[in-house]
Amino acid sequence: MERRGTGAVARTDGDEPQLQQEADRDEPRRQQGPDRPRPGGARGRIAAVVSFIGELLITAGVIMALFVVYSLWWTNVLADREAKRQANHVRHNWAKPAGPGALDTKDGIGFLHVPAMKNGEVLVKPGTGTGVLNEGVAGFYRDPVPAAMPWDKQGNFTLAAHRDGHGAKFHNIDKIETGDPVVFETRDVWYVYKVYGELKETSRFNVDVLDAVPKESGKTVPGRYLTLTTCTPVYTSDYRYIVWAELERTEKVDAKRTPPKELR
Amino acid sequence: MYVWIWRHLPGNAWMKALISLILVLAIVYVLFQYVFPWAEPLLPFNDVTVDNGMPVTGGTAVAS
Q: Which positions, given as ranges, span the membrane (chain B) (predicted)?
């Protein structure tokens, strides 16, 4: 009897704290009120799903912001680096004595200087494909209307470059005004053009601007023209911005490569 | 999601923070190096390909 009693007491003693603990564990939950969901309950599951979706949305926002940083900054860093490397390569080749071979156009045919755009020199390479223009250079058209070269007797030297990202070489095209000089530098000659017309917005399908005689610019007779094309408005590519210039004179490059007075 | 990742990172809070930072940098690297260059031509923000992407039918012009 006694033993059983003791045992019973002991058992009760052992149980008592456990009960107390459970009561303690329950207590705070009850105090938190109905807003705080029990883990594992239906409310808890809904809350988990909602917060998961929320986190996904935040993540998507951050990724889009990073994409803007990539487009407007990082591509410029990469393209400028590449353009500089290629420009140095071309300058290096020019410094070598002229060989008998044909003109090497693969590396780039020369440099475009547009003082109004305040962006120094822009290497000009053949083609207007993404691969070319993403190197931070300007490309002359081969398609759909092939460009004439500056040294041709007549025709339209048509160029394209990025407005934003990838070097953004024509970013400031809207700063060019009628009468501004545009200079194209080749190994032996400075071609000095003068801007006479612009088209601030045109359809991206308007290939007529690339014609040998660009009628939209008001010209009707063959001449030596230059056309700059890029996209507009900035940060989009809904339309195209066109600037036309006409050759004014040429200057032989001297031993010191003294730039024409327009660039001084 | 992020709480779950945090809980499963090893070490104390500093260690977790360090690993998180490395993970974030790795993700940014992968995005800049592989994902964005792949996605860029598919998005209409800097469309250079109008010229080349379409067959020459009198339409198409002028890179961006």
A: 17-36
